[in-house]
């Protein structure tokens, strides 16, 4: 990505110079046809006809005068604010490569701090007073190493973070780290949360389902806490915790529609079964809207027919709630 930025700027510079050469040649030929003696000493070498912007880049590179005069833009020649802004678009790998050329700019702590916080949104070490000589570049490497360790063994990964002082041994801190991190393997994360129900409880409370439609809230929930592939005790635990959290975030909806944690629990299972029915290629006879309303209201009689119908429409138009 970094090289692409330089190529764009370099190509624009070459195209501008090439256009100037073409216009100058046109003026020379025009004066020569008019018979002016001013061009007697000028060379008669013809240059290719000027092209519109976007001319052959290989030709532009061949006509450049010299590497020293026509070299790429040096970031150290730019204002520091502009140079840092350009490098902030690089990922960690490209930034390491850039530091080989611009050592001071590529090792800037501001850039590595942004990479750490954009990849791992919450760490306990962010909220502590950092010691002198602290390096965000070294922290990035430790966070990356810990994430790889977690994806191989969750317990060892969390232990690694604690041994480096990155995380504090507290369920809420671990839950925040998991909630704001996207580099953790969801299968290993499911194993860890199944063993650490205290962390799972804190992770559920981090979700805010206020003013969200039930299927959309369930999708958001399973986006952070992946549903198991088979029905079992862990799935029941997840849906139970989600039901209580959804009702706690929507007290007005609970009173208006007549929802309760038990009713939301039933609706969630109905939505999961409907998602499988409508999206699976192995199911030939898809469940109709009328059938879904009838079957769901048998289990949740207090829910209105219109509300259940909207649930069906959402799954039919958007898709699986646990995809």
TrEMBL record:
What the entry lists under PROSITE patterns is as follows: SEC7
Matching entries from PANTHER family are given as: F-BOX ONLY PROTEIN 8, GUANYL-NUCLEOTIDE EXCHANGE FACTOR
Single biological process term from Gene Ontology: regulation of ARF protein signal transduction
Which Gene Ontology MF annotations are present? guanyl-nucleotide exchange factor activity
Q: What is this protein called?
A: F-box only protein 8
Q: Which domain of life is it from?
A: Eukaryota
Species this protein is from: Danio rerio (Zebrafish)
Occurrences of domain SEC7 (ranges): 132-318
């Amino acid at each position: 990505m970094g090289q692409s930025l330089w190529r764009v700027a370099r190509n624009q510079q070459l195209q501008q110079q090439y256009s100037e050469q073409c216009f100058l040649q046109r003026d020379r030929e025009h004066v020569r046809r008019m018979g002016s003696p001013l061009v007697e000493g000028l060379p008669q070498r013809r240059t290719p006809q000027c092209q519109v912007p976007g001319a052959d880049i290989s030709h532009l590179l061949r006509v450049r005068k010299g590497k020293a005069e026509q070299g790429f833009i040096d970031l150290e020649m730019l204002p520091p604010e502009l140079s840092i802004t350009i490098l902030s678009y690089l990922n960690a790998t490209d930034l390491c490569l850039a530091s080989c050329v611009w050592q001071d700019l590529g090792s800037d702590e501001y850039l590595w701090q942004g990479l750490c916080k954009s990849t791992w949104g919450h760490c306990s070490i962010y909220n502590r007073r950092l010691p002198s000589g602290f390096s965000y570049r070294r922290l990035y490497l430790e966070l990356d190493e810990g994430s790889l360790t977690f994806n191989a063994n969750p317990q060892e990964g969390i232990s690694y973070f604690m041994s480096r002082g990155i995380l504090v041994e507290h369920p809420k801190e671990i839950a925040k780290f998991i909630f704001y991190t996207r580099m953790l393997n969801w299968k290993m994360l499911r194993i860890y949360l199944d063993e650490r129900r205290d962390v799972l409880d804190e992770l559920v409370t981090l979700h805010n389902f206020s003013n969200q439609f039930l299927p959309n809230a369930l999708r958001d929930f399973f986006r952070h806490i992946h549903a198991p592939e088979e029905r079992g005790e862990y799935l029941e635990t997840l849906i139970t915790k989600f039901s209580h959290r959804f009702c706690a975030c929507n007290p007005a909806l609970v009173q208006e529609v007549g929802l309760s944690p038990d009713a939301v629990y039933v609706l969630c299972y109905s939505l999961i079964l409907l998602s499988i029915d409508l999206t699976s290629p192995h199911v030939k006879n898809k469940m109709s809207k009328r059938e879904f309303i009838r079957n769901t209201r048998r289990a949740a009689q207090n829910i209105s027919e219109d509300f259940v119908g909207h649930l069906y429409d959402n799954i039919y138009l958007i898709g699986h709630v646990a995809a």
